[in-house]
């Protein structure tokens, strides 16, 4: 009897030990799984943070490279402007008989002989006066002083003696007070003259610039095809050269505008500023582990 009781107690003891082990296993195994999951998520988060860190570094690096590119572009544009200014001040050549050659001679001075047709003159404007000492002429009248610099360009058809062709000559700038012909009669030269002018090609209308209205006598930009059709002449334009201080009542010549857009300095400052700002933010957040704000 005692032997039987002893065997039963041993069996119950073994069963209780097995139950305890299963409980321990059930509790221990899930805990191990959760630990691995958390560790894996943390590792992926760190790897993602490293990737974002180096991707964001491309912002200051790229903007710095664009700033360096604008330094090159600025130097190139200044050299181009100097070249065109030197070209416009070079020794004049004879006007070619084939006007197609003028397409390769913009800003080049040419000599021509003929007479002005004052009865067919037109005006373009308002335009600002280009003064001889200005390194970069202004290209419009919005930045000019209305009491001093606002005026018009006087465009007069010119009949060439040798060929009989009629071209357009920009005689120069006149103020508002000289728009009426009777106030500048001495400047309306009659008979044959020889003049030197700078070749200019047609001009595209800029954004927000009004359209030309030939029927109203309103001209805002140099459209050679439109002007030549209206005035029945060849689509050829010369900016007249002359003395910088003409007699009173005469148009002021030398109004050649080297209209090349040059905003590379502002682009340069913008890209370098962006590079410096984003580099400071990147260093503060990723290296020093500080908040951005």
From TrEMBL:
Transmembrane annotation, as ranges: 265-287
GO cellular component entries: mitochondrial inner membrane
This protein's record includes keyword Flavoprotein: no
Coiled coil spans: none
InterPro entries: Surf1/Shy1, Surf1/Surf4
Single Gene Ontology BP annotation: mitochondrial respiratory chain complex IV assembly
UniProt xrefs under CDD domains: SURF1 (cd06662)
Keywords linked to the UniProt accession: Membrane, Mitochondrion, Mitochondrion inner membrane, Transmembrane, Transmembrane helix
Main location: membrane
UniProt subcellular location: Membrane; Mitochondrion inner membrane
Membrane topology category: Multi-pass membrane protein
PANTHER family: SURFEIT LOCUS PROTEIN (PTHR23427), SURFEIT LOCUS PROTEIN 1 (PTHR23427:SF2)
Family the UniProt entry places it in: Belongs to the SURF1 family.
Function: Probably involved in the biogenesis of the COX complex.
Protein name as annotated: SURF1-like protein
Protein species of origin: Papilio xuthus (Asian swallowtail butterfly)
Organism taxonomic ancestry: Eukaryota, Metazoa, Ecdysozoa, Arthropoda, Hexapoda
